[in-house]
Amino acid sequence: MPAEPTAFDSGQRPTIRGEKAGEGAPIVLCHGITATRRSVVHGSRRLERDGHTVIGYDARGHGESDPAPEGEGYDYSELVGDLESVVATEVGKGPFVLAGHSMGAHTAVAYALRHAERVAGLVAIGPTYTGTIAAESLDYWDGLAAALKRDGVDGFVDYIDRRQGIDPSWRESVLRFTRERMLRHRNLDALVVALREVPRSRPFESLGELAGLEVPTLVVASHDAADPGHPYAIASEYAGRLPRARLVSEAEGQSPLAWQGGRLSREIAAFCAEPTVAERMGL
């Protein structure tokens, strides 16, 4: 049974809730839009067993965390601000490894661009931001928000089924996983707003900025048959632009590496043990 979340109290609002477990070199996990802290390594405890303190939290408006307060929203600048607060209260002043999936990957990269000296290693899982915001993409997210607002979780899942073009061999797994993820949220109205605002926000201006990020990076890609929402080509481009990055993925036909909590944790643990990362951690 997952641990009950605790408030990562920075004295600011919204209250961000999460979990901190294990002892050792810290790793902070950031999840994707409409996901929760459980959806990065999917409940795997491998990182704790390998000697890490793992800090996972629900982004504002997600899971058990509070919605954005009046006058604020779900812009990446606000998401990065929440991450900064979590780091300040739960990590302290030392270096740490930062890992994020999708929205969480963009949040993590944006944080690293601001605070490269704090980040011993960066793990970008399934990034999708390319530096441009396409009208067609916004139409998709707006439709998803409208389906959630009108018909709740059932409408959300049905919309994904109709619009994502899921390979039939993966359809049942994707829809089951999506429904389970959505049932973990305390405030669906907040998610409706996040679905409209996050895709309109820029975590950073362009992919050209990645060339200046001198942080060891592991980029995790998924093949498009099972996970078309996180294109392999975009992850590959991140790996090509980041000067100290390497790319990993599952073999063709396998379940996406981003979905395999145990295997993904092993990849992250191996990355943390690499000399360049360990040295930056002071190990």
Give an account of the 3D structure.
By secondary structure, the protein is α/β, with parallel strands linked by helices. It has helices at residues 46-49, 76-91, 103-114, 135-163, 168-182, 188-197, 232-241, 261-273, 275-281; strands at 6-8, 16-21, 25-30, 52-57, 96-101, 119-125, 217-221, 245-249. It has a single domain, classed as 3-Layer(aba) Sandwich (Rossmann fold), CATH 3.40.50.1820. The protein has 9 helices and 8 strands. Strands 1-2-4-3-5-6-7-8 form an 8-stranded mixed β-sheet, with helices on both faces. The two termini are 32 Å apart.
SSE layout:
Elements: E1 6-8, E2 16-21, E3 25-30, H1 46-49, E4 52-57, H2 76-91, E5 96-101, H3 103-114, E6 119-125, H4 135-163, H5 168-182, H6 188-197, E7 217-221, H7 232-241, E8 245-249, H8 261-273, H9 275-281
Parallel strand pairs: 3-4, 3-5, 5-6, 6-7, 7-8
Antiparallel strand pairs: 1-2, 2-4
Helix pairs in contact: 2-3, 4-5, 4-6
Q: Please state the structural category.
A: alpha/beta
Q: How many alpha or pi helices?
A: 9
Estimate nothing, just give the exact number of structural domains: 1
Q: Quick one: biggest sheet? A: 8 strands, mixed
